[in-house]
Amino acid sequence: MKNTKHLAASLLLVLALAGCAGEQATKPGAAEEKGGAAAQTAPATEQGAGGAALSEQERMKAQRQAELLAQKRVHFAFDSSAIDDEARAIIEAHAAHLVANPSINVQLEGNCDERGTREYNLALGERRAQAVEKMMKVLGVAGNRIKTVSYGEEKPLCQEHNESCWRQNRRVEIVYK
Amino acid sequence: MIRAAAKWLAMIGMLWAANVHAALTIEITRGVETGTPIAIVPFSWEGAVKPAQNVSDVVGADLTRSGRFAVLPSKDYVSQPHEDKDVVFKDWRILKAEALVIGSVRLVAPGKYQVQFRLYDVFKESQLAGFRYTVGPELLRSVAHQISDIIYQKLTGEPGAFNTRIAYVTLEEPVHARPVYKLQVADSDGFNPQTVVRSTEPLLSPAWSPDGNRLAYVSFEDKRSKVYIQNVADGRRELIAQFAGINSAPAWSPDGKRLALTLSRDGNAEIYVMRLDTRELRRLTHDPAIDTEAAWSPDGHDIIFTSDRAGSPQIYRMSASGGSAERLTFDDDYNARASYAPDGKSIVFVTRQQGNFRIAVMPLNGGPMQVLTDTSLDESPSFAPNGRMIIYATEVRGRGVLASVSADGRVRQLFKFEEGDVREPAWSPYNRDLQYKE
């Protein structure tokens, strides 16, 4: 919860840098609000210039899509493989990208934080990868283009022993092949 | 048998010599004052070059670590006998020693040492045990552990487990190179480490075969989990499981003929039993939840495992031939990686208490669970073959280390390796090949 303000601040930074989102987590709700505001204000200020407003809307959409695609990791709660709204937006963007580019394949790599037993986490990492796989399939990506692997808690990104580090480690990595 | 052991120990002797500065210290972090008072007279030495291994010091450290003995400081000893004829029991009654150990190490031929020891009951003024061993320098520590086992058995009536080994995984992460994982085997006191497998990808879950000669483990060397079985002495190995999905959590049946495994080849982590002679697989669990971390009861009838079928990881028990599962743990929301005590009457596992992962034991007769540790990230508990100690992995200042705790929780110690991260300990069964007697 403490992270929400931090995320909002990061989001402003991300939008300012437009397309240099890197690995920063963005809050999808905020981005949509901004897009919505643009779509609403455009017709009011530029009467009769509907075409220009639409392309602005499309430009915003493409920009947001690019930001989401730049995020190659989705995160999870402790001992959970449930996909939250933030993860959902990222997975949808990658699924759309895969549908639009039939020649590329993807590997989904499930990971856990250090807490809990290693073998249980190996199974949990797989369940996370499978949760992302299932969603991608629902979104139209053929099953034979997706591979899953679990590293359990064996490949942490961050070595510290605190929640912010643990959250980074509880992830599925989306790796294009 | 003895020759095989001698060869094997000679090999680790050499490795030990090369590794002599990679020191290990054992720190007793929680002790007791109530152990049986015992005096161990430093063994006499006859020969030109003193061997690197001080036999009586190793015996003293073993007995202290067990928590069942209070080794009296040698500076208080009124006399220093090494032979039976020099023992004056009054000297030891003054110190309130209940037992006395004397002995000697003598160079009898180039590279051959004769170790003698005697154990006395101070109050009855009688000898309880006396043995003589003639060995090369590489076997001196093993002989010391055997002496500790004899003393322990004579004075407590239970077998000792000092002359056993532990397997564990180390991780070193050099700044400008790939990480190095090693599956290692050492004496039960952490000395004589020998590298069994080395990899730049993760290794985990070492499991000893019941004869103590082989290890099953999980390796990511092919970028995903696969299960191997490796002979500790000569390094020969077999790939056991490389099905689609995860291949993990190997556990030997007590007869050594079957291996329980966690596989997700059917889409979800389930427990299977493989016959090692035919590689025939039999699926034991059928549940959309995670089922993993199988362990066999000592009689081979039952399997306990971790499942989150009720929403959070808990320990369940089922027949090793299949059927329905019975839930064993109900306290707290995370109980996992259970294994049986050697007598089959209790289990040890990892439990979560207010966000901290700790080691707990629970009798199977319906008694309450007892939490044995008070640290925050304790994992991978395993009983010594005599059931008196449990080795586990914990963390000290962000680094993985091994620790052990007595089964009653009264004595704890840390194994401090100089560098790297140490995890996944597994205590070996008794191994007849390590016994040497004259």
> Radius of gyration of chain A over alpha carbons?
18 Å
Q: Could you tell me the CATH topology label of the largest domain in chain A.
A: 60s Ribosomal Protein L30, Chain: A
Helix content of chain A: 55-70%
CATH topology of the largest domain in chain B: Neuraminidase
- Low-confidence region ranges of chain A: 1-49
The helicity of chain B comes to 10-25%
Number of helices of chain A: 6
| Assigned CATH architecture of the largest domain in chain A | 2-Layer Sandwich
| CATH architectural name of the largest domain in chain B | 6 Propeller
- Mean pLDDT of chain B, to the nearest integer, reads 90
Sheet of most strands of chain B: 6 strands, mixed
Overall structural class of chain A, as computed from helix and strand content, comes to alpha+beta
Quickly count the domains of chain B: 2
Strand content of chain A: 5-15%
Oligomeric composition of the shown chains: heterodimer
Q: How large is the count of helical segments of chain B? A: 4
Number of DSSP strand runs of chain A = 4
Number of E strands of chain B: 31
Largest interface: A-B, 24 and 37 residues
Poorly predicted runs of chain B are: 1-22
Shape of chain A: globular
What does this structure look like?
The complex is a heterodimer of chains A (177) and B (438). Chain A is of the alpha+beta class. Chain A is built from six helices and four strands. Chain B is mostly beta strands and 438 residues long. Chain B has two domains: 33-156, TolB, N-terminal domain (Rossmann fold); 165-432, Neuraminidase (6 Propeller). Chain B contains four helices and 31 strands. In chain B, a hairpin with a 5-residue loop joins strand 23 and strand 24 (346-353). The A-B interface holds A 79, 114-120, 122-124, 126-127, 130, 148-152, 154-155, 159-161 and B 202, 204-205, 218, 220, 223-225, 245-246, 248-249, 262, 264, 267, 269, 290, 292-293, 306, 308, 312-313, 334, 336-337, 350, 352, 357, 376-377, 379-380, 395, 398, 423-424.
